[in-house]
Protein backbone atom coordinates (compact mmCIF):
# COMPACT_ATOMS: atom_id res chain seq x y z
CA UNK A 1 0.00 0.00 0.00
CA UNK A 2 2.84 2.39 0.80
CA UNK A 3 4.27 1.73 -2.66
CA UNK A 4 0.96 2.74 -4.24
CA UNK A 5 0.92 6.04 -2.35
CA UNK A 6 4.56 6.65 -3.24
CA UNK A 7 3.66 6.40 -6.94
CA UNK A 8 0.74 8.82 -6.49
CA UNK A 9 2.66 11.15 -4.18
CA UNK A 10 2.82 14.03 -6.64
CA UNK A 11 -0.76 13.65 -7.82
CA UNK A 12 -2.52 13.56 -4.45
CA UNK A 13 -1.72 17.18 -3.46
CA UNK A 14 -2.66 18.30 -6.97
CA UNK A 15 -6.03 16.56 -6.72
CA UNK A 16 -6.62 18.08 -3.29
CA UNK A 17 -5.76 21.55 -4.59
CA UNK A 18 -8.12 21.17 -7.55
CA UNK A 19 -11.05 20.23 -5.34
CA UNK A 20 -10.40 22.92 -2.74
CA UNK A 21 -9.82 25.56 -5.40
CA UNK A 22 -13.04 24.63 -7.23
CA UNK A 23 -15.06 25.40 -4.13
CA UNK A 24 -13.63 28.91 -3.72
CA UNK A 25 -13.62 29.71 -7.44
CA UNK A 26 -17.24 28.63 -7.80
CA UNK A 27 -18.24 30.68 -4.78
CA UNK A 28 -16.35 33.77 -5.97
CA UNK A 29 -17.72 33.49 -9.49
CA UNK A 30 -21.22 33.14 -8.08
CA UNK A 31 -20.82 36.42 -6.24
CA UNK A 32 -20.06 38.23 -9.51
CA UNK A 33 -23.34 37.27 -11.15
CA UNK A 34 -25.28 37.06 -7.92
CA UNK A 35 -24.01 40.16 -6.12
CA UNK A 36 -27.51 41.29 -5.09
CA UNK A 37 -28.47 37.83 -3.82
CA UNK A 38 -25.25 37.54 -1.81
CA UNK A 39 -25.72 41.06 -0.42
CA UNK A 40 -29.29 40.20 0.55
CA UNK A 41 -28.16 37.06 2.36
CA UNK A 42 -25.50 39.04 4.21
CA UNK A 43 -28.12 41.66 5.16
CA UNK A 44 -30.38 38.90 6.48
CA UNK A 45 -27.48 37.87 8.74
CA UNK A 46 -27.21 41.49 9.99
CA UNK A 47 -23.72 42.05 8.58
CA UNK A 48 -22.34 45.59 8.50
CA UNK A 49 -20.42 47.13 5.59
CA UNK A 50 -21.86 44.67 3.09
CA UNK A 51 -20.27 46.11 -0.08
CA UNK A 52 -16.83 46.06 1.56
CA UNK A 53 -17.11 42.54 2.99
CA UNK A 54 -18.75 41.14 -0.13
CA UNK A 55 -16.04 42.64 -2.35
CA UNK A 56 -13.32 41.33 -0.03
CA UNK A 57 -14.91 37.86 -0.02
CA UNK A 58 -15.14 37.83 -3.80
CA UNK A 59 -11.52 38.94 -4.21
CA UNK A 60 -10.19 36.44 -1.66
CA UNK A 61 -12.21 33.55 -3.05
CA UNK A 62 -11.07 34.20 -6.62
CA UNK A 63 -7.44 35.08 -5.84
CA UNK A 64 -7.13 32.36 -3.22
CA UNK A 65 -8.84 29.80 -5.43
CA UNK A 66 -6.52 30.54 -8.35
CA UNK A 67 -3.45 30.54 -6.12
CA UNK A 68 -4.38 27.17 -4.61
CA UNK A 69 -5.29 25.73 -8.02
CA UNK A 70 -1.94 26.62 -9.57
CA UNK A 71 0.06 26.14 -6.38
CA UNK A 72 1.35 29.72 -6.19
CA UNK A 73 2.03 31.21 -2.76
CA UNK A 74 0.05 28.21 -1.60
CA UNK A 75 0.95 28.22 2.06
CA UNK A 76 0.06 31.87 2.50
CA UNK A 77 -3.16 31.69 0.50
CA UNK A 78 -4.30 28.47 2.17
CA UNK A 79 -3.75 30.10 5.55
CA UNK A 80 -5.67 33.23 4.51
CA UNK A 81 -8.55 31.14 3.17
CA UNK A 82 -8.59 29.17 6.43
CA UNK A 83 -8.77 32.41 8.42
CA UNK A 84 -11.57 33.62 6.13
CA UNK A 85 -13.56 30.47 6.88
CA UNK A 86 -13.68 31.18 10.62
CA UNK A 87 -16.00 34.21 10.58
CA UNK A 88 -17.78 32.95 7.45
CA UNK A 89 -18.66 29.69 9.17
CA UNK A 90 -19.63 31.30 12.47
CA UNK A 91 -21.85 33.90 10.79
CA UNK A 92 -23.50 31.89 8.02
CA UNK A 93 -23.66 28.40 9.52
CA UNK A 94 -24.59 29.14 13.14
CA UNK A 95 -26.57 25.94 13.64
CA UNK A 96 -26.95 26.67 17.36
CA UNK A 97 -29.38 29.51 16.62
CA UNK A 98 -30.91 28.20 13.38
CA UNK A 99 -34.63 27.47 13.23
CA UNK A 100 -35.42 23.78 13.81
CA UNK A 101 -36.08 23.13 10.12
CA UNK A 102 -32.59 24.50 9.23
CA UNK A 103 -30.62 23.14 12.18
CA UNK A 104 -29.37 19.95 10.54
CA UNK A 105 -28.43 21.64 7.25
CA UNK A 106 -26.51 24.37 9.07
CA UNK A 107 -24.77 21.78 11.25
CA UNK A 108 -23.73 19.83 8.14
CA UNK A 109 -22.42 23.00 6.47
CA UNK A 110 -20.62 23.98 9.66
CA UNK A 111 -18.91 20.59 9.79
CA UNK A 112 -18.05 20.69 6.06
CA UNK A 113 -16.42 24.07 6.54
CA UNK A 114 -14.51 22.59 9.47
CA UNK A 115 -13.20 19.85 7.18
CA UNK A 116 -12.24 22.42 4.53
CA UNK A 117 -10.54 24.45 7.27
CA UNK A 118 -8.52 21.38 8.26
CA UNK A 119 -7.51 20.70 4.67
CA UNK A 120 -6.40 24.30 4.22
CA UNK A 121 -4.35 24.17 7.42
CA UNK A 122 -2.64 21.01 6.17
CA UNK A 123 -1.91 22.75 2.87
CA UNK A 124 -0.60 25.80 4.73
CA UNK A 125 1.80 23.52 6.61
CA UNK A 126 2.79 21.05 3.87
CA UNK A 127 2.69 23.27 0.78
CA UNK A 128 1.39 22.67 -2.71
CA UNK A 129 3.27 19.53 -3.66
CA UNK A 130 5.26 18.55 -6.69
CA UNK A 131 3.03 19.81 -9.49
CA UNK A 132 2.88 23.49 -8.55
CA UNK A 133 4.35 26.87 -9.36
CA UNK A 134 5.77 26.97 -5.82
CA UNK A 135 7.73 23.77 -6.46
CA UNK A 136 8.89 24.97 -9.86
CA UNK A 137 10.19 28.22 -8.35
CA UNK A 138 11.86 26.39 -5.46
CA UNK A 139 13.57 24.01 -7.90
CA UNK A 140 14.88 26.93 -9.97
CA UNK A 141 16.10 28.72 -6.84
CA UNK A 142 17.92 25.59 -5.66
CA UNK A 143 19.58 25.10 -9.05
CA UNK A 144 20.71 28.72 -9.19
CA UNK A 145 22.07 28.52 -5.63
CA UNK A 146 23.97 25.35 -6.50
CA UNK A 147 25.42 27.03 -9.59
CA UNK A 148 26.40 30.20 -7.73
CA UNK A 149 29.42 28.74 -5.85
CA UNK A 150 30.91 27.38 -9.07
CA UNK A 151 30.57 30.80 -10.66
CA UNK A 152 32.40 32.41 -7.74
CA UNK A 153 35.26 29.92 -8.02
CA UNK A 154 35.64 30.64 -11.72
CA UNK A 155 36.23 34.37 -11.14
Can you characterise this structure?
The protein is an all-alpha fold. The protein has one domain (2-154). The protein is 83% helix and 0% strand. It has seven helices and no strands. The protein has helices at residues 2-7, 11-33, 35-44, 50-70, 74-92, 100-126, 133-154. The chain is elongated. The termini are far apart. The relative contact order is 0.13. The model has no long low-confidence stretch (mean pLDDT 92).
Note the overall shape: elongated
- How many distinct folded domains? 1
Low-confidence stretches: none
Number of helices: 7
Measured distance between first and last alpha carbons: 51 Å
Largest sheet: none
| Cα-based radius of gyration, to the nearest Å | 20 Å
Overall pLDDT confidence: 92
Strand content: under 5%
| Order of helix and strand elements from N to C terminus | HHHHHHH
Amount of helix: over 70%
Helix- and strand-based class? Answer: mainly alpha
Seen as an oligomer or otherwise, the chain set is single chain
Total strands: 0
Amino acid sequence: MDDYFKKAEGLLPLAGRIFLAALFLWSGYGKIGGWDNAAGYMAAMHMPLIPFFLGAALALELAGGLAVLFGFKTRLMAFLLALYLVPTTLIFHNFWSAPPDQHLMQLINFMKNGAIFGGLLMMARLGAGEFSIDNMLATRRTKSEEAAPSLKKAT
